[in-house]
Amino acid sequence: MAEVVVAGSCMIDLICYVSRLPKPGETIAGRSFSQGFGGKGANQCIMAARLGSSTAMVAKLGNDSFGRSTIENFNTNKVNVDHVGIVDESQSGVAQITVNDEGENSIVIVSGANNHLNDEDLGSAKEMISRAKVLVCQLEISPETTLNALKLAKEAREDSAATTTIFNAAPGLAGLKKEFYKYSDILCVNETEAELLSGVSVTDRASGESAVLSLQNEGPGCVVLTMGSGGVLYTLPREERNGDDSVSVHHIPAEPVNVVDTTGAGDAFVGALAYYIARHSSLSFSEKIRRSSLIATHTVTLPGTQTSFQTHTLPKELMVS
Ligand SMILES: Nc1ncnc2c1ncn2[C@@H]1O[C@H](COP(=O)(O)OP(=O)(O)OP(=O)(O)O)[C@@H](O)[C@H]1O
Ligand SMILES: *[C@@H]1O[C@H](CO)[C@@H](O)[C@H](O)[C@H]1NC(C)=O
Ligand SMILES: *[C@@H]1O[C@H](CO)[C@@H](O)[C@H](O)[C@H]1NC(C)=O
């Protein structure tokens, strides 16, 4: 039994640090190399697991060493892998990242096995998804599979204990089907994704609010827009809105911190939100957002992606209802 189920991507990040990015046809010597676990799905699942949720991943890996080490990483973090499949036809997903001294990067993502996650896999995981408190999806696997996962979670049970869906529309996808909104209890986006989906250019708090209202009009339960150091804008879920029909946009500022590495901050936020919804349902939605934001901010003070998802140094009050 997993309270948080993530149907999504697993990647291995291969990062080369160089003084400058190579030109076409050029071979240059890099300074250093690092390999890390990534993929938005895996990252969000690991964050929820480290905070204390029982979690499960629904994903596809290649029959290769990257796939095997990804499974090991899930085991170490107590993530259930009953529905993590291995395919022979494709390699595990990889992100080849080159970072120069200015911190600029160029990235090639090969989704590989992630593209093989399909409806049959969802069918096998149906029981697990419909019993979960929260299902989390992103857009690093096939959009059709993502939509069907959200649909399955919302249609399997219509009782009050039905699964809450968090849809993190990342990376942004132009022309997203309207149906995605219908099956999303919580739509989570960053500024780039909000702009792509709403057409509203997000440059400050006022334009962020317009984008949130525009996305809310598409019909999700509620909308959450993370804005890096600008904090979080959000609407409340239906059950917390006051009787009157006007939907207002709320704001929670981010704590000012010494930024070391923001990679994965968005994933930390989404994983933490899944944890609070599953484990601390009595907290108000605003309090869940405030705490998720504090956790995401903590990760930007540490290097790496999953390596920055440290939970033992978090204030204990964050874990109490
Ligand atoms: N510079 C920062 N200072 C404080 N908090 C931050 C900062 N950057 C990110 N955060 C925290 O992380 C949350 C998510 O960050 P952000 O909106 O940048 O997501 P993202 O663009 O998806 O992240 P990334 O692509 O870097 O993983 C923010 O809402 C905030 O709580
Ligand atoms: C992976 O490949 C090995 C051979 O290299 C094979 O024996 C094994 O059955 C494959 N596993 C899966 C799940 O396809
Ligand atoms: C939003 O997330 C995408 C990945 O989904 C990333 O490419 C983009 O840089 C992020 N935007 C901001 C403003 O951080």
UniProtKB/TrEMBL annotation:
<dbReference type="GO" id="GO:0005634">
    <property type="term" value="C:nucleus"/>
</dbReference>
<keyword id="KW-0067">ATP-binding</keyword>
<feature type="binding site">
    <location>
        <begin position="11"/>
        <end position="13"/>
    </location>
    <ligand>
        <name>substrate</name>
    </ligand>
</feature>
<feature type="binding site">
    <location>
        <begin position="266"/>
        <end position="267"/>
    </location>
    <ligand>
        <name>ATP</name>
    </ligand>
</feature>
<keyword id="KW-0808">Transferase</keyword>
<dbReference type="Pfam" id="PF00294">
    <property type="entry name" value="PfkB"/>
</dbReference>
<keyword id="KW-0539">Nucleus</keyword>
<dbReference type="GO" id="GO:0004747">
    <property type="term" value="F:ribokinase activity"/>
</dbReference>
<feature type="active site" description="Proton acceptor">
    <location>
        <position position="267"/>
    </location>
</feature>
<dbReference type="InterPro" id="IPR011611">
    <property type="entry name" value="PfkB_dom"/>
</dbReference>
<keyword id="KW-0418">Kinase</keyword>
<feature type="binding site">
    <location>
        <begin position="226"/>
        <end position="231"/>
    </location>
    <ligand>
        <name>ATP</name>
    </ligand>
</feature>
<feature type="binding site">
    <location>
        <position position="263"/>
    </location>
    <ligand>
        <name>K(+)</name>
    </ligand>
</feature>
<dbReference type="InterPro" id="IPR002139">
    <property type="entry name" value="Ribo/fructo_kinase"/>
</dbReference>
<feature type="binding site">
    <location>
        <position position="304"/>
    </location>
    <ligand>
        <name>K(+)</name>
    </ligand>
</feature>
<keyword id="KW-0119">Carbohydrate metabolism</keyword>
<comment type="pathway">
    <text>Carbohydrate metabolism; D-ribose degradation; D-ribose 5-phosphate from beta-D-ribopyranose: step 2/2.</text>
</comment>
<feature type="binding site">
    <location>
        <position position="308"/>
    </location>
    <ligand>
        <name>K(+)</name>
    </ligand>
</feature>
<comment type="similarity">
    <text>Belongs to the carbohydrate kinase PfkB family. Ribokinase subfamily.</text>
</comment>
<dbReference type="GO" id="GO:0005829">
    <property type="term" value="C:cytosol"/>
</dbReference>
<dbReference type="GO" id="GO:0005524">
    <property type="term" value="F:ATP binding"/>
</dbReference>
<feature type="domain" description="Carbohydrate kinase PfkB">
    <location>
        <begin position="1"/>
        <end position="310"/>
    </location>
</feature>
<feature type="binding site">
    <location>
        <position position="190"/>
    </location>
    <ligand>
        <name>ATP</name>
    </ligand>
</feature>
<comment type="function">
    <text>Catalyzes the phosphorylation of ribose at O-5 in a reaction requiring ATP and magnesium. The resulting D-ribose-5-phosphate can then be used either for sythesis of nucleotides, histidine, and tryptophan, or as a component of the pentose phosphate pathway.</text>
</comment>
<dbReference type="InterPro" id="IPR002173">
    <property type="entry name" value="Carboh/pur_kinase_PfkB_CS"/>
</dbReference>
<keyword id="KW-0630">Potassium</keyword>
<protein>
    <recommendedName>
        <fullName>Ribokinase</fullName>
        <ecNumber>2.7.1.15</ecNumber>
    </recommendedName>
</protein>
<feature type="binding site">
    <location>
        <position position="302"/>
    </location>
    <ligand>
        <name>K(+)</name>
    </ligand>
</feature>
<feature type="binding site">
    <location>
        <position position="140"/>
    </location>
    <ligand>
        <name>substrate</name>
    </ligand>
</feature>
<dbReference type="InterPro" id="IPR011877">
    <property type="entry name" value="Ribokinase"/>
</dbReference>
<feature type="binding site">
    <location>
        <position position="261"/>
    </location>
    <ligand>
        <name>K(+)</name>
    </ligand>
</feature>
<keyword id="KW-0963">Cytoplasm</keyword>
<feature type="binding site">
    <location>
        <begin position="39"/>
        <end position="43"/>
    </location>
    <ligand>
        <name>substrate</name>
    </ligand>
</feature>
<keyword id="KW-0479">Metal-binding</keyword>
<dbReference type="InterPro" id="IPR029056">
    <property type="entry name" value="Ribokinase-like"/>
</dbReference>
<keyword id="KW-0460">Magnesium</keyword>
<comment type="subunit">
    <text>Homodimer.</text>
</comment>
<feature type="binding site">
    <location>
        <position position="267"/>
    </location>
    <ligand>
        <name>substrate</name>
    </ligand>
</feature>
<feature type="binding site">
    <location>
        <position position="299"/>
    </location>
    <ligand>
        <name>K(+)</name>
    </ligand>
</feature>
<comment type="similarity">
    <text>Belongs to the carbohydrate kinase pfkB family.</text>
</comment>
<keyword id="KW-0547">Nucleotide-binding</keyword>
<dbReference type="GO" id="GO:0019303">
    <property type="term" value="P:D-ribose catabolic process"/>
</dbReference>
